[in-house]
Amino acid sequence: MPDAKPPYAVLDIDATLSDTSRRIHFLDRRPKDWNAFFAHAKEDAVLDEGLAVATTLAETHEIVYLSGRPERLRRDTVKWLKDNGFPEGRIFLRGNTDRRPSAVMKLYRLKALRAERPVAVLVDDDVRVCDAAEKAGFTVLRADWGLDPETQPTLFDAQETEGRT
């Protein structure tokens, strides 16, 4: 009898695996400079706890990366994950014109993944995404290791009201 496929572990990228603190200032401006914010994503430092969580989960789960980054960043995202030692996994990014709030976009994808096989855990920093996932019955690990009280409200607002990351 063949082995069953392992459950999914779904991981956010920005402010969960990558340190966005050096580019968040692009979102403090009016108008927000989304092009610069995303152009500098490939320069993010690794959040050590995020890497440790991803590596540990990969031992017993199939890794799926679920990010609000636009699809146009796929090449940079794949390279960043590989160059920084993250485990291989499927990558789901936001469509380039998708402006739904992150909680809506990510919950839609989580439900689609759950239809394929169990989703063991979602690892995310966005409290609204985490709340929506928990309400829908998903187990959540809140990635509070990358939170900076000074910058996170800017990122959370961008994710929910502008549907950009």
Automatic annotation (TrEMBL):
SUPFAM superfamilies: HAD-like (SSF56784). It holds the Pfam family HAD_PNKP. This is Putative acid phosphatase of HAD superfamily subfamily IIIB. It comes from the Bacteria. Residues 9-144 form the Polynucleotide kinase PNKP phosphatase domain. The lineage of its organism: Bacteria, Bacillati, Actinomycetota, Actinomycetes, Propionibacteriales.
